[in-house]
């Protein structure tokens, strides 16, 4: 009888451990849900050539983004992004990254649930050739994964302040981002000028 109980307990522990490992694996693994491009339904707004020729940097980026930034919620992103060319996807998802990190650092990016966009962001960065930003984001993500339990605890308390107080390792990553994100936008602009048809119809 004792042997039977021991076997049942042992089997139960293995089963729980496997479930926990599977859960952790799913939480750590990201999938890119935004790769599809329906060329027959490309969202390609009209755009004045004079604006395209004279705007630069973040001003050009916003001008190209604004007419395609029509999702009402994050849940709409998957369907909307099917209408985006690779260049538009890069602009759209990199803008998510920038809006979050420049407002509240990488901690805010993760706190607000934007990690699911990392595969699409990395695809965009590869497209424009910003390898240094890819490396920075990889470091930030490893930092997040090492501290995700702390994020979960603070989320239960609905208080992110201790994350900024205790996870000072993000400070250096934030500083590097602030110093290099203009380069990222310059690369995006260069790509857009080389491939305007991916973004707009010039008139």
From TrEMBL:
Residues 83-195 form the DNA mimic protein DMP19 C-terminal domain. It holds the Pfam family DMP19. InterPro entries: DMP19_C. It comes from the Bacteria. This is DNA mimic protein DMP19 C-terminal domain-containing protein. The lineage of its organism: Bacteria, Pseudomonadati, Bacteroidota, Chitinophagia, Chitinophagales.
């Amino acid at each position: 009888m004792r042997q039977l109980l021991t076997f049942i307990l042992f089997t139960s522990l293995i089963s729980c451990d496997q479930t926990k490992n599977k859960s952790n694996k799913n939480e750590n693994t990201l999938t890119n849900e935004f790769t599809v491009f329906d060329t027959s339904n490309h969202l390609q707004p009209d755009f004045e050539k004079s604006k395209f020729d004279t705007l630069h940097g973040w001003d050009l980026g916003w001008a190209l983004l604004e007419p395609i930034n029509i999702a009402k919620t994050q849940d709409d992103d998957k369907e909307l992004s099917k209408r985006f060319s690779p260049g538009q996807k890069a602009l759209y998802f990199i803008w998510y990254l920038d809006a979050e990190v420049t407002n509240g650092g990488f901690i805010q990016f993760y706190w607000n649930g934007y990690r699911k966009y990392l595969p699409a962001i990395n695809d965009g960065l590869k497209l424009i050739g910003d390898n240094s930003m890819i490396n920075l984001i990889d470091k930030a993500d490893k930092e997040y994964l090492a501290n995700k339990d702390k994020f979960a605890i603070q989320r239960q308390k609905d208080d992110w302040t201790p994350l900024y107080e205790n996870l000072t390792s993000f400070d250096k990553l934030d500083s590097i981002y602030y110093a290099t994100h203009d380069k990222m936008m310059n690369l995006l602009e260069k790509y857009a000028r080389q491939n305007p048809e991916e973004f707009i119809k010039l008139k």
